[in-house]
C-alpha cells in the first residue's frame, strides 16, 4: 500500500447518483472518489437496494475498495470532473 495516499474514514451516500463518495488525499491534494451502487454490488457479489445497506457493505469492503482507488489514483484515471470512479479492474 502506498503511504502517500491517505483515506480518511469518511463516506457519504449520494441518493441522486446512487453512489458512495469518499475522499482520498495525495500529497496534500483532496481527491473525490465515487463508487456506484452497481460496482459495489458487483464487488460484494450481491444486490444492494438502498443507501444504508450500501454504506454497511462499503465499510465491510473498505480495504479492497481503497486498494482499487489507490491503483486508479496512481494511474491518474480521473474522470472529466476530476474524480476517481471506482470500478473493478
UniProtKB/TrEMBL annotation:
Pfam families: DUF1488 (PF07369). InterPro entries: DUF1488 (IPR009962), Shew3726-like_sf (IPR036692). This is DUF1488 domain-containing protein. It comes from Vibrio splendidus.
